[in-house]
Specification:
Structural class: alpha/beta
Mean pLDDT: 95
Shape: elongated
Number of domains: 3
CATH superfamily of the largest domain: Dihydrodipicolinate Reductase, domain 2
CATH topology of the largest domain: Dihydrodipicolinate Reductase, domain 2
Radius of gyration: 24 Å
Distance between the termini: 57 Å
Bound molecules: L-homoserine
CATH class of the largest domain: Alpha Beta
Length: 430
């Protein structure tokens, strides 16, 4: 029986999971594929480190060339992370006609299109389902299960750390700093949590989702990103009084051939399926023209969930090798990259203003909104923090980003407005 030889780059959390799944599910995998898979080399930094899996000592090497230049290796699994050096390594592997499976969204969001082209040129596959939402087969669902549909919108909770933090802030009334520390103690958030809390991790994943869904070559720089650092208990509590939950949501939408991709704190109606996704779980809501609404839910990270996606991709690569169709995936974008302008980006907005509590103040404010044709769905007014001040909290009907920015600029110049406290997108309702 034919055997496929694999070089595994990285033996951390995900790499260990990959070895476990290949060992524990060996018979099932062999039965499905009709051939065996064998890891023959593992690239590690530290040859002496004690490992959680049983591996042969002579599999280990700290020299990448022993994997990417080894003629006997058919497939490279890359689960070590990193961008530039890893990119060079994978380019060399592809030039040496090795197929690639990677879980590296940081790399794929930056160099993905170039790597896909290089893979095709060398008749190789490069699969990366594990890079978005770990254990949820969302990239595969977009490229296979929903292949016949036109995807119009994707809304995703694609960062477990921030979803855990937002859940704790909302359910337990904890402050941002407290939940961040808790997330770090539990090992969800990194010592440097910037990529998670500032939205970069989610933006990378949304870039990959949007490219696949819209068949357009969008770049990481095309994503408008803001994170969760400035969300306060007051924001959460006012949102709650108006019927909403705040989550860090990635949204990719396509209208009239133009795309918009954002990652930002977003208010969702409390009964929206994404609002019910708690703790570190991920979920991706997909709207297709024909299928309507679908939601994919599950673990977004972790050793075995992510390794499941990696090994399933590996099995796909092996199937293609055996069928002789490696490198046959259509990777060229179908549409030119076109982005929506501010006047074409529509959504509702939640706005909090600190204002002077005096006769006519409210009218001055509403005059500005009406000048820009902004109309309101919900409004609350409460006494402010200081004497003779009031806080106004409102939710607009759908307006363009241009209308929002122009009204905000005018409000900031208005004498009765002491401060624009916060504003967030509202989505998930018509
Ligand atoms: N840091 C990511 C998260 C996991 O919190 O979801 C890896 O993508």
């Amino acid at each position: 029986m034919e055997k496929i030889h694999v070089g595994l780059c990285g033996l951390g959390t995900v790499g260990t999971g990959v070895v476990k799944i290949l060992q524990d599910h060996k018979e099932h995998i062999k039965h499905k594929l009709g051939c065996e898979i064998e890891i023959t080399k593992v690239l590690v930094n530290n040859m002496e480190k004690k490992r959680d899996v049983v591996i042969k000592r002579d599999w280990l090497t700290s020299d990448p060339a022993e994997l990417v230049d080894d003629e006997a290796i058919d497939v490279i699994i890359e689960v070590m992370g990193g961008i530039e050096d890893t990119n060079k390594l994978l380019e060399r592997a592809l030039e040496n006609k090795k197929h690639i499976v990677t879980a590296n969204k940081d790399l794929m969001a930056v160099h993905g299109q170039k790597l896909l082209r290089l893979a095709k040129k060398n008749n190789c596959d490069i699969l990366y389902d594990a890079s978005v939402a770990g254990g949820i087969p969302i990239l595969r669902s977009l490229s296979d299960g929903l292949a016949s549909d036109h995807i119009q919108k994707i809304m995703g909770i694609v960062n477990g750390t921030t979803n855990y933090m937002m859940t704790k802030m909302a359910d337990e009334g904890l402050a941002y700093e407290e939940v961040l520390k808790e997330a770090q103690d539990l090992g969800f958030a990194e010592a440097d949590p910037t990529a998670d809390v500032d939205g970069l991790d989610a933006a990378r994943k949304m870039t990959l989702l949007a490219n696949l869904a819209f068949k357009m070559e969008l770049h990481l720089e095309d994503v408008d990103v803001s994170g969760i650092r400035n969300i306060t208990q007051e924001d959460i509590s006012f949102a709650d009084s108006l019927g909403y939950t705040i989550k860090l949501i990635g949204i990719a939408s396509m209208n009239h051939g133009k795309a918009e991709v954002t990652v930002e704190p977003t208010l969702l109606p409390k009964d929206h399926p994404l609002a019910l996704v708690k703790n570190e779980f991920n979920a991706v809501y997909v709207y297709g023209e024909a299928v309507g609404e679908t939601m994919f839910y599950g673990p977004g990270a972790g050793s075995l969930p992510t390794a499941t996606a990696v090994v399933s991709d590996l099995m796909e690569v092996v199937k293609n090798i055996r069928l002789g169709i490696s490198g046959s995936a259509h990777i060229d974008p179908q549409f030119d990259r076109q982005l929506k302008e501010d006047k074409e980006k529509y959504s509702r907005h939640f706005i909090r203003l600190d204002v002077d509590d005096q006769a006519g103040a409210f009218q001055e404010i509403t005059n500005i909104f009406s000048e820009h044709e902004v109309s309101f769905a919900k409004i609350l007014q409460l006494p402010g923090d200081q004497e003779k001040t009031a806080e106004i909290v409102m939710v607009t009907h759908k307006i363009s980003r241009e209308q929002l920015l122009m009204s905000m600029a005018k409000l900031e110049g208005l004498g009765v407005v002491k401060r624009l406290i916060s504003h967030y997108r509202v989505d998930g309702e018509e």
